[in-house]
Structures are given as C-alpha cells and as structure tokens.
C-alpha cells in the first residue's frame, strides 16, 4: 500500500508552511496595494494599510514560526534558514523560497515530513 499525501496536507508541517507562505504573499500584495492607495492612488485612503498592515504582520510571524518548525523537522542547513528568513521580508519572497525549496528537495519527502518515513519492512502491494 502506498501512502500518498497532498503537498498542502495540513497534517504535516510542510503542508502548513506552504499554506502560510501563500498567505504571506497575498498579505504582501494587499499591503502593497494599500500603500499605493495611501500615497499615490485616487482617492487617497489609508484603509488598505490599516487592514493589511496587521494582517501581514500576523502572517509574517506565522511564516517565521512555520519555517522554524519545518526547518527542524527536515533539518535545514544554516544557509537554508537564512534564505527562509530573507524570503520573509522580501515582497512575494515566501513563494519564491517555497518553489526553490520544493525543487531542491529542502521541504523533505512527504513521507518523512508526515512522520511516516520510519524504517521498517516493505509493505506488499495489494491488487
């Protein structure tokens, strides 16, 4: 029997990290739009900044905590930790980091991240 998990499986730290990384990017876009309307837009309004400022702040903290949890779970190197922290402050950097981490295998195998990667005898396939 093969265990298949979704990349966004919320039973895994990596799944939570992916969701939070996308939420962080969306909150960045909202904050950037809010700043546009505050300083350049017509009509000028601070509503976007007042709404998305605190939202982005909360999601930013969640991203850093999620990066800490995933990094510990899959044993990131110091360089990967630094890139994750840098990605948290660059607009849309969280998504760029996530794509890079997935492509380079730094998110860990889904079986390991889900806690299913314990060594043991092979399970025979059933038909």
Automatic annotation (TrEMBL):
Organism of origin: Mycolicibacterium vanbaalenii (strain DSM 7251 / JCM 13017 / BCRC 16820 / KCTC 9966 / NRRL B-24157 / PYR-1) (Mycobacterium vanbaalenii)
Subcellular location: Cell membrane
DUF3817 domain: residues covered: 15-102
Domain of life: Bacteria
Membrane topology term: Multi-pass membrane protein
Transmembrane segments: 16-39, 51-74, 80-101
Keywords: Cell membrane, Membrane, Transmembrane, Transmembrane helix
UniProt-recorded name of the protein: DUF3817 domain-containing protein
Pfam families according to UniProt: DUF3817 (PF12823)
Entry GO terms, CC: plasma membrane
